[in-house]
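cache lookup: miss for this entity combination. No prior model stored, computing from scratch. Input as submitted by user K.M.:
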Amino acid sequence: EPEVTQTPSHQVTQMGQEVILRCVPISNHLYFYWYRQILGQKVEFLVSFYNNEISEKSEIFDDQFSVERPDGSNFTLKIRSTKLEDSAMYFCASQMTGTEAFFGQGTRLTVV
Amino acid sequence: AQSVTQLGSHVSVSEGALVLLRCNYSSSVPPYLFWYVQYPNQGLQLLLKYTTGATLVKGINGFEAEFKKSETSFHLTKPSAHMSDAAEYFCAVSDRSNYQLIWGAGTKLIIKP
């Protein structure tokens, strides 16, 4: 069964460092998303990506964040200069039009 | 803006008892509605969804949910709880034109032996 794959499963980084979280969405899907879940809190939308550009982004998704789909298969989330409050579980999701989103297992980012 | 309210951050039921997890949304136009489950240290798995058609939808693991437009609700039920149902459950909605998911805060389901 096709699935969304995220790597790494856990990343520890120093405050101020750049991190790139990687996702391989399901191959025939058209919409791609990043969500995050701070420990003990609700899941929050970060950004959606369609037709090779950002279609929606939340107020969380500031200039420190960027997304890319460099090669038609990977979908990456970059945080330029990490802060302690960026520590969270980051989920990638993909979907076809009008269907449910399929989620990856998440990357737990810990900023120290 | 759309919002999703899940009543009760924790719900505790005995094994074999009825499970009822509540979800209400705010939207004048019926959105797409979803329930996701998250087991400890795992990702988000779709339990069931409502997009159109029959308002009672059945999902995996014996769960079902009923869309009630008049009550703007999409409560999740299971007739008989099992220990393996212990997890966190999230209700989510998406606009029919913009598929971004808006999430409820989640309800942690605790099953007592």
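stored under new cache key. Chain A has a mean pLDDT of 93.
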